[in-house]
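Sequence, please.
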């Protein structure tokens, strides 16, 4: 049985784990010993390590045949030092992984003025975090080409699930842009992203990027309205962009400065993906039904 190492053991990793058991011997890289019990109880072997401390990564050298890299980039700078330390540790082993899957972000494309784009669109990141994601992608691609490792990259947009809806923000009176100023956003349900990770394990091509997005094309305000209406909450008040620049934080404004619609045909054709929640409304309705039970 092949050995598989999960790096970055958050929500999507937890949703992916049940799909892996029985097919791989799974190891989970954790920096918090308090998380050991969960992963051990659910069938994985925990390893204590921290991507911010290179010395702690010695145990993973030569360990895994496959690596799932879900970890976020480092917090500052233009280089993802966490990915750099991970790859340095992997190259010290007597053997290298055969395959590596990385979950990146659609933010690497930057603002596309609402255009529909596919994976041939060159990255033009506008935020520091997206710059670090591009750096991680480039590091991984070079690693794959240099060592013959099959690296596949999933560029995920806004990840949502029942526990990740903007319900509390709506209750607190979050504001949205009026339609003429609003931006197109893209979404993927966390369960579908877990499915796409496993699809990339089977069918992902070497040095290949995939837009890991659902079929919907929705503006941000419409997304807020969808959630508000489904959960019987007040809709977000609409304001103009000039007012938003006065009232919203820089982080909020950053999400409202990029508009794009992702073409997801490649995941369907190459990864043979069949989305459980092809539209955001499907996932929001499922979350509402879950809360009713």
């Amino acid at each position: 049985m092949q050995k598989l190492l999960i790096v970055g053991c958050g929500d999507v990793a937890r949703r992916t784990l049940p799909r892996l058991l029985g097919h791989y011997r799974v190891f989970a890289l954790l920096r918090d010993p308090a998380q050991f019990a969960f992963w051990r109880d659910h069938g994985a072997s925990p390893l204590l390590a921290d991507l911010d401390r290179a010395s702690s990564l010695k145990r993973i050298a030569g360990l895994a045949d496959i690596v799932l890299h879900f970890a976020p980039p480092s917090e500052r700078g233009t280089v993802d030092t966490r990915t750099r330390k991970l790859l340095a540790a992997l190259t010290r082993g007597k053997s290298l992984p055969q395959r590596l899957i990385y979950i990146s972000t659609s933010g690497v494309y930057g603002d596309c003025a609402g255009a529909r784009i596919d994976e041939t669109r060159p990255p033009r990141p506008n935020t520091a975090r997206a710059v670090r994601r591009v750096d991680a992608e480039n590091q991984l691609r070079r690693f794959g080409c240099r060592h013959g490792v099959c690296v596949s990259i999933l560029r995920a947009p806004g990840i949502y699930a029942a526990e990740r809806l903007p319900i509390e923000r709506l209750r607190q009176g979050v504001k949205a842009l009026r339609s003429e100023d609003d931006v197109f956003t893209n979404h993927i349900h966390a369960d579908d992203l877990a499915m796409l990770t496993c699809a990339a394990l089977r069918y992902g091509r070497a040095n290949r990027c995939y837009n890991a997005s659902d079929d919907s094309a929705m503006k941000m305000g419409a997304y807020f309205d969808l959630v508000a209406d489904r959960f019987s909450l007040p809709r977000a008040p609409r304001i103009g962009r000039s007012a938003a620049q006065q009232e919203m934080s820089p982080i909020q404004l950053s999400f409202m400065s990029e508009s794009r619609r992702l073409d997801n045909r490649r995941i369907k054709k190459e990864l043979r993906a069949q989305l459980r929640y092809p539209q955001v409304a499907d996932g929001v309705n499922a979350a509402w039904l879950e809360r009713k039970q």
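The longest strand covers residues 24-30.
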